[in-house]
Amino acid sequence: MTxxxxxxxxDALLRRTLGRSTDGLAFAPGRVNLIGEHTDYNGGFVLPCxxxxxxxxxxxARDDDLVRVVRSDPQEDVAEFRLSDRLGAGPGTxxxxxxxxxxxxxxxxxxxxxxxxxxxxxLDIALAxxxxxxxxxxxxxxxxxAVGQACAASAAFEMPRTHLALAAQRAExxxxxxxxxxxxxxxxxxxxxxxALLIDCRALSVQPISMxxxxxxxxVHSGVERGLVDSAYNERRASCDRAAALLGLGSLRDAxxxxxxxxxxxxxxxxxxxxxxxxxxxxxxxxxxxxxxDLRTLRECMAASHRSMRDDFAITVSAVxxxxxxxxxxxxxxxxxRMTGGGFGGCVVGLVPEDRLNALDQAVxxxxxxxxxxxxxxxxxxxxxxxxxx
Length: 390
What we know:
By secondary structure, the protein is an alpha+beta fold. It contains ten helices and twelve strands.
């Protein structure tokens, strides 16, 4: 789907279901992470890019403090609350019996008001998206950023992109209950066409990295759905915090290879810390390789990243491992594959020369079936622009 198609769907939904004419439109993309998993909340480095899939929002201002939101995917749901309602922090706090996605909308509006003192009036909001849920392509960050952009525009407030990203992170951390880092939100706000983003998640700096001409992105869903709040994601973050504390560090960003020999680290803490330390090194090496078109080094970085996620961080599952192995072999000497996203299911990303893309797609279609015996869903993606207004 194109952004304009999402805008048309959101506009039609707002008119049909809530009986309102649209005052404005906003779009926020999802992202695919090329390398750098679970390093963002450790203050480290990541290398994602925004993608052409995302969330479109149509909104209309109200003259009261009522917020009504309608979403048509996968079925039509309408939920509402008032801005005067007492909405606290924590997973599920303040929900008004709406569908599961509702907490993200409430949390984002709360974060916008708390972080910037934004004087929000009531809104009627319609959502339309084409990001698969539970795939590790940041559907939740896309939703939060799109809603935040709509809120800012409705209040005639021009919010800096990084501030918008941090508000969206706060919505997930403090309201939904997922202790995610800032990578997804930063990618959604700062995305640039044709470029990956080398993000320093502690300094909040973003360095665009041009994708080599003719390098394609194929994302394949393992068929294993994932849910970060209900998974061991938060446990992985807690184990990283513990490892840093054992080393006397504020975060594992400051850990080095030499520190991994510290006897204070027990076996589990060592594994978690080793993943973060080596993954940060791989991100920097992969960014350099991407910039220079060194696809062989990029392949090595992606393969090592997947092994580290499997063996040290224990966030892959057997279906994802099989799919990554198949894609890595099919890609050949230039380009690579690895799991992308927080883990425990979701997708594998492959980077491959354009002239080998069809062969890779065919190899996946022929050689992999999801746990239900079905051919996997596949997306040919491109590095795209970040959040925007229609």
